[in-house]
From TrEMBL, chain B:
Keywords: Oxidoreductase. GO terms for molecular function: phenylacetyl-CoA 1,2-epoxidase activity. NCBIfam families: PA_CoA_Oxy2. It comes from the Bacteria. Its EC number is 1.14.13.149. The keyword Oxidoreductase applies. InterPro entries: PaaB, PaaB_sf. Pfam families: PaaB. The lineage of its organism: Bacteria, Bacillati, Actinomycetota, Actinomycetes, Kitasatosporales. The gene is paaB. It is an enzyme of class 1 (oxidoreductase). This is 1,2-phenylacetyl-CoA epoxidase subunit B.
């Protein structure tokens, strides 16, 4: 028996195996891993796993965590201007949840042998990405509703299958996240409904927000499967359970009747029911826009990352002070608050 | 304090704590995840804010991650092997004549 952390990967290094393994051992480990995946068992932090599996998970979980953290910004933009105390309390709770989701996910990523600081460094230096959707601005109050309904709706469609992801800590984090996301989606929908049924100006504001967020939301599912760099391998590893196109189609089919109930339209002239397929056909997505935003040329890329860096730097003294206080107390426990 | 040691301290990560939640009275604490915190008191507060925002718990434990001793997965077969060949520890091992009840 060895003294090790229960939920940490071996060593501090991402991509490390279990010490020195000979080629035959490695083949045995690989086949044990393949058998576990084949039998739909979960892989847990201290199990042997292929380097590629570990690296893929770190990349995906980190990107997911970063998206939650950066995703706080567009909505927090409206907290001070929420139209009622009720809406303000809801929005604060939602933004706090996004922080929570980021932390569940960082915690899951750390089980693979990366440190929290390393992940934050990579976000701040642009070496790891976050979802492009958060590089769009929230121009009106209705955008808060459109984000809840469409952006969180797309996220839920993506995330529900991740609750069955082959990597245990990621799947468990997603169960928590999904439970909380449904409040996010509903509050957005309710907000849009209130606007849609309001004055003509409020209705127009809701429609404008949906017009701007619809296409970026569809892009959240990623490029078509044929062009998606990691899809096939991730499916084989059961990290992903469905293709990008399948999830996108599912989302479109869910949204169409919801838009009708809102009394709003979706900005796609080619959107229509296809009796034969039992699904909605929809128009071409402008992937050049997606690529541009991904490359850093979206409306808010610069603003989002510089605000994140500033928040981190301005919090440094708090982290340092708390650590100094903890050291001082550990050194002189008898003086603790003068009570012992 | 020199500038470099100050920077080093500022950068040194807060320790990691594993978090366990008792979801309601009558149940055991269950592992839910981890938090970073400089000390136990703040670890509890951070864990409360992160893992019980919707009344998911009535009690919290935080444990320094480095203090936990775990069995190692690569020796799991020999380590747990003694339990595998003792089927007589389970009630289903025994034959009971037809009609005998409350046994």
């Amino acid at each position: 028996m060895t003294t090790v952390l229960p939920e940490r990967g071996p060593g501090g290094e991402a991509g490390g195996g279990v010490g020195d393994v000979s080629p035959t051992d490695e083949a045995a480990l690989q086949s044990a891993f393949d058998a576990a995946i084949g039998a739909d068992e979960r892989i847990e932090p201290r199990d042997w796993m292929p380097d590629g599996y570990r690296a893929t998970l770190i990349r995906q979980i980190a990107q997911h965590a970063h998206s939650e953290i950066i995703g706080m910004q567009p909505e927090a933009n409206w907290i001070t201007r929420a139209p009622s105390l009720r809406r303000k309390a809801i929005l604060m709770a939602k933004v706090q949840d996004e922080a929570g989701h980021g932390l569940y996910l960082y915690s899951a990523a750390e089980t693979l042998g990366v440190s929290r600081d390393e992940l934050l460094d990579k976000l701040h230096s642009g070496r790891q990405k976050y979802s492009s959707i958060f590089n769009y601005p929230t121009l009106t109050w209705a955008d808060v509703g459109a984000i809840g309904w469409l952006v969180d709706g797309a996220a839920i469609t993506n995330q529900v299958p991740l609750c069955r992801c082959s990597y245990g800590p990621y799947a468990r984090a997603m169960v928590r996240v999904c439970k909380e996301e449904s409040f996010h989606q509903r509050q957005g929908y309710e907000l849009l409904l209130a606007l849609s049924r309001g004055t003509p100006a409020q209705h127009a504001m809701a429609q404008d927000a949906v017009d701007r967020w619809w296409w970026p939301s569809l892009m959240m599912f990623g490029p078509p499967d044929a062009e998606s760099a990691h899809s096939a391998q991730s499916m084989a590893w059961k990290i992903k359970r469905h293709g990008n196109d399948e999830l996108r189609q599912r989302f479109v089919d869910i949204c169409v009747p919801q838009a009708e109930a809102l009394g709003l339209t979706l900005p796609d002239p080619d959107l229509r029911w296809n009796e034969e397929r039992g699904s909605h056909d929809f128009g071409e997505i402008d992937w050049s826009e997606f690529q541009q935003v991904l490359k850093g040329n979206g409306p808010c890329n610069e603003q989002r990352i510089s605000q994140r860096r500033r928040a981190h730097e301005e919090g440094a003294w708090v982290r340092e002070a708390a650590a100094a206080y903890a050291r001082k107390r550990a050194a002189a426990p008898s003086n603790e608050d003068g009570r012992r | 304090m020199s500038e470099t040691s100050r920077q080093h301290r500022a950068r040194a990560e807060w320790p990691l704590w594993e978090v366990f939640v008792r979801s309601r009275r009558g149940l055991s604490h269950t592992h839910v995840g981890s938090v970073h915190a400089p000390d136990a008191a703040l670890a509890l507060r951070n864990a409360r804010d992160l893992y019980t925002r919707r009344s998911e718990g009535v009690s919290l434990w935080v444990v320094p991650a480095e203090q936990i001793t775990a069995s190692s997965p690569d020796e799991k077969d020999p380590f747990f092997e003694p339990a595998a060949d003792k089927a007589y520890r389970h009630p289903t091992f025994y034959e009971v004549p037809e009609g005998v009840r409350n046994l």
